[in-house]
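Narrative progress, year one. The postdoctoral researcher (J.K.) led the effort to move from monomer predictions toward full complexes, under supervision of the PI. The following entry was the first complex the group processed end to end, covering 678 residues in total.
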Amino acid sequence: MTQHDPVTQHDPMPQHDPVDPVGLGSPAGRYRMLRLIRGFEELALGLVKSGEITGGIHPYIGQEAVAVGVCAALRPQDRITSTHRGHGHVLAKGAAPDRLLAELLGRTGGLNRGRGGSMHAADFSLGVLGANGMVGAGGAIAVGAAWSARQAGEDRVAVAFFGDGALNQGVLLESFNLAAMWRLPVLFVCENNGYATTLPAATAVAGSATGRAAAFGIPAAEVDGMDTEAVRAAAAEAVERAASGGGPGFLECRTYRFEGHHTMERLMKLRYRTPEEVADWRALDPLPRAAALLPPGRAGQLDASVAQQLDAAREFALASEHPDPAGALEHLYADGLRPRTGSGA
Amino acid sequence: MRLSYTKALNRALTDALAEDPAVCVFGEDIGAGMAGPTLNLLDRFGPGRIVDTPLSEQAFTSMAIGAALTGRRPVIEFQIPSLLFLVFEQLVNQAHKFSLMTGGQSAVPLTCLVPGSGSRDGWAGQHSDHPYGLFAHAGVKTVVPATPTDAYGLLRSAIADPDPVVVFAPAAALPVRETVTWELAPVPLGSARIHREGTDVTVVAVGHLVHDALAVAEELAPEVSVEVFDPRTLHPFDWTALAASLERTGRLVVIDDSNRSCGIGGEVIATAAEGMRLVAPPRRITRPDGTVLPFAPGLDRALQPSRGQLRDAIGEVMKHRAPVRPHGEGPAR
């Protein structure tokens, strides 16, 4: 990789198509994004292992079909809120992998200038209103974004990604009510990966996920979350309905994370799921399924191009500067207020 | 014209809504204008901007954050201060943190208005807190106006501010009326107001206690010259103005209707002790540590700062004489 310019070339996706700037409109583009997310996560896992990423990450490996399928159904003007397991959503909405990686490394070139890290990665220019460290918190924020767009007379749908753990957060259920009462253009996407950290969803969620949405009169569907095309079709229907004034929708995407809840988990040697269960789900890996839709040889070409892009991302991120400690409280207030120092000076 | 505190808040909302189409109001019973500040707003601005919400504080506060992140300037009215405990996550852990966490990509111009903060006779344990210290501690901009003109001016500035702001309108200040002979105007956040100049002691009084401090100052005027200092915003606090006041008086009493431990009164005294002119040990008058207001009116009042306590504290600090300054170096004015 030569002459990598972080400012102008950090996003290798074709940017000339205003309708599909991220390139998710074709099976090849969707496969490429699946591979990009997978490769990004593997790269990040390596950087956690080598100690270059501190604090750990929540790997998305296994769940890529949800982010790619849903974002393939979105228009550039649509907005998303994400979760602590957010890299896939942020990338699928079009964020530059090199800047996301720099953010995970806490560098100035990061999406959030190194102030947010993995759990708070955001790109407001793309409608990515932030990954969020509090389970279920993004749901009502997306409802607010949907309300705001409608008040402004703008045609924008907001998507809230959340896990099965969020189904037990009161604020999320409250937000179902507001979205349904006010028929807001919002899509709730539950990524049911079966576990809230280590707690099996089967022992935590009374009734069903879709039943909870249905109770508020929100059309709800259960989707194979390992199948990008199935997710995309279901999301497209819900987005279309929301955008045309039909109110909110809810998708439960049944999926699985192949890795642990977070990268500390390997060290802790937790046993809350069997190797057989993991193997069963790995057999449903969304990547080969998406590759099978492409002409022979195409997936390999895309893999090579993604590998090249990720090499460049790694190079960019590691070369990006560490923030100056003197600026540790920059951006604390949007009006530039500088509070007193902690030393009493 | 006699302007009431509640009417001043109502006018601030009306003027802000009229001036900027991005301003909108969320809250419970605001269509009916039950708490006062939102009276008639629904008729004038319609349900698209004046949003009567279900009783879902966490969801509508989060929703207001989402709206603020995408171009609106929401104001939320909370009928009682204790509802803020329900939405501490939203205000402190989300709204306040977005700007830094996103590296300056986003701002949350959200205002929370809490008319009826603190004790109202007979509202008992769960309706009578003044939790402004919690927000100042967390770094959320925190405003406590004492007068109708300041209520108007500070609320206007809060709504125009790009950051989250909580405006506490103390219940005991709501009946205050003021003859307004000048144009109502925004009051900048972070600017204190000296209601009465003095040379012997600075009384820092928060919210409605400004009026008690003024009454006591008047009463003591023949013997003691009391400066009544109203911070108006607790965060950011106008430390420069406080230093200047103490330069004049050298003595400090803080009167604050919230709990003592880790309260704003302690912060004012600590900051003064660290680097301002003090010729006497300072005093603070607060509710007791960990106060829960009992229902019986006599018990309720027994726990609140009183004028008697203020008189006593002023007497205490006045026992200490200022060191004689060399000739020609009088107190800076």
